[in-house]
User: What shape does this take?
Amino acid sequence: MLRSTSIAAVAVLAVGLSACGNGDDGGDAAAAGGDPTTSIEVLGTDSLDFDTTAFTVPVGEEVTVELTSEEAVEHDFVIEDVDGQDLEVVHADPGQTETGTFTLDDTGTYTFFCSIPGHRQAGMEGTLAVVDGD
Ligand SMILES: [Cu+2]
Assistant: This one.
């Protein structure tokens, strides 16, 4: 009797854990990219990196992206597959800071990248988590 009771308890615990994992995408994303923000600042470096590669933004709200390109190389900030198309938010020439905006109407995890040829392949991409603002 004792044995079957503890097996049942383990089963309940396992169900609880997996339910939590399935419903917690927003929480995981927030942990990766911090609290939701409507103001993103990102630096594209001359060595073909973004200085920050994870952001969390609220769904349905306008988000401002301030992109700075370091001295020698131009960069842009493109969100992959927004309603089936890549969305270019902002482009900055070398040494310039430019601002663009976007609004995403569906929660989920998107990928952003730099579309200048070769840059994404060099590592210029990151994760954009879109979460319920609450
Ligand atoms: Cu770039």
Remarks:
- The beta strands are 39-44, 54-58, 63-69, 75-82, 85-92, 97-102, 108-113, 125-131.
